[in-house]
Amino acid sequence: MSNNAVQLALFEQRLPKKPYHTDEFATGLAIARAQNALKSRYIQANGPTHKYWLIFDVDSPDAALGWYDLGAPAPNIVATNRENGHAHLIYGLEVSIRTAPNGRSVPLRYAAAVENALREMLGADIGYAGLICKNPLHPHWQVSTWEQNLYDLD
Fold first, then answer.
1. Nearest Cα to Cα of residue 56 among 34, 37, 39, 79
2. Cα gap 103→31, rounded to integer Å
3. Listing from the earlier edge strand, what are the strands of the sheet with 42-43?
4. What tens digit of pLDDT does each residue of 110-150 get?
5. Which of 22, 74, 91, 118 is the most exposed place for a label (fewest CB within 10 A)?
6. Spatial CB neighbours of 38, under 8 Å, sequence gap ≥ 6
7. What is the C-alpha separation between 154 and 136, in angstroms, rounded?
């Protein structure tokens, strides 16, 4: 199985059972079983209790490869808008971060610090909430995979 196939299979495997999804933000978000939500251009990658992916919205024409020039770590998956080059850079975590109300505060704070530092390094959109992302399993986006190993926060 190619690196591309492995990364995308893991993305699909880690989806919430009933993620939010949409094709157009103007129509709002819907909730459906993952197999149906996968047909949408945008999908919720992380569930309500765990964060498996750190996702960054980079709004520049060279977003798909800009991370390399900045000396940032390679994303696992990049979903790029073919029209303007803007992309979502998706970094997979080896061990998920528990984000449920009973999650421990020290790991949550550490994860937030790492996420903020990487967002700044990448020049990613600070206003991006991260609830849904460009669905890398949808043919609308140009998708590439880079790093085959998942990351730990260190």
1. 79
2. 24
3. 30-31, 20-22, 42-43, 133-134
4. 999 999 999 999 999 999 999 999 999 999 999 999 999 99
5. 74
6. 12, 15, 21, 135, 137, 138
7. 26
61: pLDDT strictly greater than 70:
yes
Tokens of 32: 């459906």
* DSSP letter string, 52-95: EEEEEEE-STTHHHHHHHTTPPPPSEEEE-TTT--EEEEEEEEE
Q: How far apart (Å, rounded) are the C-alpha atoms in residues 25 and 32?
A: 16
Q: Phi and psi at residue 89, in whole multiples of 5°?
A: -95, 125
Integer Cα distance of 75 and 73 in angstroms: 6
As a whole number of angstroms, the distance between CA 139 and CA 141 comes to 5
The rounded distance, in Å, linking the Cα atoms of 14 and 128 is: 21
pTM over 0.90: yes
Task: Decide: 9 and 1 in contact? Cβ < 8 Å.
Answer: yes
Question: DSSP readout, 87-121?
Answer: EEEEEEEEEEEE-STTS-HHHHHHHHHHHHHHHHH
Q: Indicate the pLDDT class of residue 36, thresholds 50, 70 and 90.
A: very high
- Euclidean distance between CA atoms 94 and 81, whole angstroms: 27
